[in-house]
Each structure stands twice: as C-alpha cells, then as structure tokens.
C-alpha cells in the first residue's frame, strides 16, 4: 500500500474495520434476499460472458459482489483496505467453497501489473475515495485492452429538504426500533472534510470521472429495480430513508 503521510487512508481503514461486524446486516450492503441475488447476477451477465474472465473487485468489503461473480464461474481477485472486512469475506468464500484471492490493497495505488484483468468492478466505493480520478486511472491501467469498468454508486445523502427529512425520520425509527444510535457519522469530521464527495456522488459526476480516465463507450444504467427489491425486504425505519439515485457506470478501455 502506498505511503499515507496525511493519515487519511488510515482513518478510512479504521472506520471500515469498525463497521465490518455489522456490515452484512445493513440493508443495501449485504444481499438480503434470493430476489436481490438474482437481480445482481442478471445485471452482471450484461457485462460478462459464459466464458470465465478475470475480475478485480476493488473495495470488496465483506465480499458480496465477489461471491456472486465467483458463483458465475469467474476468476475473482478482491481487495480492500480493511483487514476486518477481508476476514469476513474470506470466511464467507471458504464456507461456500469459492477460490477467491483476497488481499489488502489501496484502490488508488494498486499492486497489480498492467493489463491483468478483464473486468474491474466496485460497489459503493468511488464516493469514499480522496482522489477518484487517480483511482480510475489505476483501474484503467490494470485492465486488458477492451477490458471493462463497472462502477456502482449513488448519491447517498441528498441535500434536498425531502432527502434530509427522510433520513431524519429513518434514523429516528432505527434509534427507537433497534436501540442503537444511527446519528453518529460514518466518518470522523476530519476525514469528511478531506473527501471531494462526502455525501455520495451524482451519476453525471461518476460518468465524467470514468470518461476522464480514458474509458470510452461510457454508459449509465439505473439500478432502480435493484433498489426497489432491496426496499421490499427492509424494515420501515430503513425503507423511509433509502430513496436516492442509485446507478452503474460502465466503460470500455
């Protein structure tokens, strides 16, 4: 992993290490139903083939997307900054009998050689990065010619009045029903102040990042269908606040 004189990456690592224990229980992070599982598989079939390909899952967390892609027969390498996240991912892969390579690595400074993968994918990652442009250039570098990028992200904390109201009501419901404090920030203030997209990322911003990194045939895909499925299986307190732009950006090297 690249040196981190600012301490930003260390703070990111610490935050996700702390959240690893509950991560899969959070709706929209862990895949909570067979219906959602099927929807993700059908989505990935649009960007893969029946022939196995090499995939790099960047910021894999507890490995939900890695497991789906391995189930589809692909050769998956998965990285994350968080050791605790990776431990959970490795345990899940071992129980399912999937051979996935998990390792600690930096999304903005990958340890892989040029032109190593057919597909680079990440979910809920780009908005968390200090330097999204640098990251995407790295992802381009490790892709083979005609390799593909798939960025799954969203505008998680819309600043509209309706968005703020829904989040407040949702957190209040979680506080009452789950007896835990959801009002605590996911990141410390110092870290939030050093991120370009601390509220999440608009779809057009993600598209621009992908295009500036040298990808072509860039297309935007709404994930409203998957979000609708996710909301179906959420308790009301979660469902109230879970309504925002959710999308996939696809591009070709």
UniProtKB/TrEMBL annotation:
InterPro entries: Methyltransf_11, SAM-dependent_MTases_sf. Signal peptide: none annotated. Keywords: Methyltransferase, Transferase. Pfam families: Methyltransf_11. Coiled coil: none annotated. Residues 56-150 form the Methyltransferase type domain. GO terms for molecular function: S-adenosylmethionine-dependent methyltransferase activity. GO terms for biological process: methylation. PANTHER family: 2-METHOXY-6-POLYPRENYL-1,4-BENZOQUINOL METHYLASE, MITOCHONDRIAL, METHYLTRANSFERASE. This is UbiE/COQ5 methyltransferase. It comes from Methanospirillum hungatei JF-1 (strain ATCC 27890 / DSM 864 / NBRC 100397 / JF-1).
């Amino acid at each position: 992993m690249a040196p981190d004189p600012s301490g930003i990456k260390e703070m990111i690592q610490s935050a996700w290490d702390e959240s690893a224990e509950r991560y899969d229980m959070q709706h929209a992070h862990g895949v909570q139903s067979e219906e959602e599982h099927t929807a993700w598989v059908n989505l990935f079939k649009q960007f893969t083939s029946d022939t196995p390909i090499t995939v790099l899952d960047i910021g894999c967390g507890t490995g939900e997307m890695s497991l789906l892609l391995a189930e589809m027969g692909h050769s998956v390498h998965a990285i994350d900054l968080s050791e605790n996240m990776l431990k959970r991912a490795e345990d899940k892969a071992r129980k399912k009998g999937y051979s996935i390579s998990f390792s600690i690595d930096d999304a903005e400074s990958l340890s892989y050689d040029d032109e190593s993968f057919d597909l680079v994918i990440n979910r809920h990652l780009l908005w968390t990065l200090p330097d999204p442009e640098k990251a995407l250039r790295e992802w381009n570098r490790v892709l083979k010619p005609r390799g593909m990028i798939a960025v799954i992200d969203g505008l998680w904390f819309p600043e509209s009045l309706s968005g703020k109201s829904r989040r407040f009501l949702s957190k209040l419901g979680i506080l009452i029903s789950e007896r835990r404090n959801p009002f605590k920030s996911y990141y410390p203030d110092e870290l939030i102040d050093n991120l370009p997209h601390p509220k999440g990322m608009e779809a057009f911003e993600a598209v621009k990042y992908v295009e500036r990194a040298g990808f072509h045939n860039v297309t935007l895909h709404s994930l409203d269908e998957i979000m609708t499925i996710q909301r179906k299986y959420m308790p009301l307190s979660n469902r109230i606040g879970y309504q925002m732009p959710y999308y996939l950006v696809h591009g070709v090297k």
